[in-house]
Amino acid sequence: MKGRPLASIVGAGLSKFGKLEGKYSREIFLEAAREAFGGCSNFDPKRDPKALFVGQMSESFEHQTHVAPSLADWVGLLPIPATRIEAACASSGAALRCAVFAVASGMYDVVAVGGVEKMTHRVTSDVTEYLAMASDFPMEQWHGITFPAMFGLMATAHMHKYGTTEEQMAMVAVKNHHHGCLNPKAQMQREITVKQVMESRPIAWPLKLLDCSLISDGASCLVITKPDLAKRFTDTPVDIVGTGQASETIGLYERDDITFMEVARLAAEQAYEMANKRPSDIDVAEVHDCFTIAEIVAYEDLGFCAPGEGGKFIEEGETCLGGRIPVNMSGGLKAKGHPVGATGAAQACEIYLQLTGQAGQRQVEDASVGLTHNIGGSGSTGVVHILRRRG
Amino acid sequence: MDSKSPLTLESFYRFCSQRKLTGARCGSCRSILVPPRALCPKCGSTDIQWTELKGTGKLLTYSVVHVAPTAFQSLVPYAVGIVLLTEGARLPGIIRANLKDLRIGLDLKIDFEPPQSENWPSWARYYFVGVDSP
Known about the structure:
The complex is a heterodimer.
Chain A: E1 7-14, H1 25-38, E2 52-55, H2 67-74, E3 82-85, H3 91-104, E4 110-117, H4 124-132, H5 147-162, H6 166-180, H7 194-199, E5 202-205, E6 207-208, E7 218-225, E8 238-247, H8 262-275, E9 284-286, H9 292-301, H10 310-315, H11 332-335, H12 343-355, E10 369-376, E11 381-389
Parallel strand pairs in A: 2-3, 2-4, 9-10
Antiparallel strand pairs in A: 1-7, 1-8, 4-7, 5-6, 8-11, 10-11
Helix pairs in contact in A: 1-2, 3-12, 6-9
Chain B: H1 9-17, E1 22-26, E2 32-33, E3 48-52, E4 56-65, E5 78-85, E6 90-96, E7 107-112, E8 126-130
Parallel strand pairs in B: 6-8
Antiparallel strand pairs in B: 1-2, 1-3, 4-5, 4-7, 5-6, 7-8
């Protein structure tokens, strides 16, 4: 049964990512949902979806818990069950898995899934504090270890063990900004240079401002169906053929080696096995570049290159548009933006566009198999999905 | 050290307020658990006993924080790191050292801030300094 479609994506939508002034998260989610529902023919929001799963990281931004019913309400889905899934930055990757389970189990024919975060109305020190809540309070937050610092600790370890350089990390940012310029939904529409990254102000050495993903508002939404019903809604469904997820200590410090993420390796292993695919089969990938070092580590954890060779892999242009395996064609978290709860499902939106030939200027030619890699916290949750074009 | 204290974070930080770094030792697989826990995550044993630690170790990795949450803004730039304790467990914390002296492998020892309160969330913080610091 390996390689069997588990569920199908028949509609995908994304709000604009960026500073969406004057918009509340439920209003931003409506933008994404309208695009997802609108792109899906014969789809009736009042009739078809039987459940909504939404990823959202933090109630602190809008002082609001219990967001799922309000999001269902705002997009016209009442009274179907609506549930918020929280796994830090992997919230909507985990929500997508719930949607896959919901249809693969036979429980529902059609479900909606997505994610949202509204962040830019808060001052940076508040955002820093709320994001750090995904690290361990007693042993990390209490000792002033910020979120960028967690990835700074990983970067220092990776540099020491493998000789990875700050310039190689900067190249990830340069690439993703370039790709972001090709994505009208991306928050950043500006090319940058390695020199600019290197000279940007330090945030958590060795990470500088331009090594960090953005503070963003945004939402994502997907319509998921049983594979045999997909053609009812679109001529170009994309099948989810592999899904994997794993958990690790919340404390980064408890892990024997922080130059890789065990959760990503395990989630990828599960997804590859289920999909009957290998790393060399992947035509396009969206990976969790919350900081530039995280993308380098992702190349290694996903098997795109050997451990320790991620720095060389970006330097040789293997992951650029036109390279061996284009990564983060959307601009990634770095340039498209990182409204944390929206990110996992947004990655699947980009792969959907790529596999259906709708990615415009950033289209990877003849892409048929894509992968998403979504990380929560410092690597306490990892979610990987493998998607395949029909036909 | 009161060996009957519950194996909790609260106890760990209460010992910090007494200027003691403590962990727990698994009676089954001998792992050192810092902070202590009642169940060994490595082997599943509940045969866990308190053990006092030397508070010395080597710097495994570090980062220098320039943008901090409000409570730490007066300290920036400050170094944080993960320390491999002499007994084998790892512990994260602030490294109070000259930033230009930071390097992987640096020998460190623990010290403690004066306790603010024993109650959550105002635990007594520990931090690390170079072994040669007075």
